Amino acid sequence: MDNIDISNCILEESDGVFTYKNENTTLGFVRFNENGEVEYIFVNPIFRKKNLASRLLKLVKEKTGKKIVFQEPISPLGSKLLKSIERWN
To answer: Is 1 a domain residue?
Structure first.
């Protein structure tokens, strides 16, 4: 997997949401609560398979200090991410 050079990206944080953006678009975001529950995670299709979801989950873990818990996935891609949950806890 390729890594994304995020040195030119902006990381925004507001009310339980981390968002990576560049000057043109949103690369991805994660919505979570103070209990470490990930309510929603999205990565722009152009930036998928480049470890961006991993970076977002790491931010959640660092911010909450809690074990990450995923809510029930609603898409096949969400199911794939759920399989890697052990990596984050």
So the answer is: no
Which pTM value belongs to this model? 0.80
CB under 8 A, 24+ apart: contacts of 36-45: 36/60, 36/61, 36/64, 36/65, 36/66, 36/67, 36/68, 36/69, 37/68, 37/69, 37/70, 37/71, 38/68, 38/69, 38/70, 38/71, 39/71, 40/71, 41/78, 41/81
pLDDT by residue (tens digit) across 44-70?
A: 999 988 889 889 999 999 999 998 888
Domains in the chain, number: 1
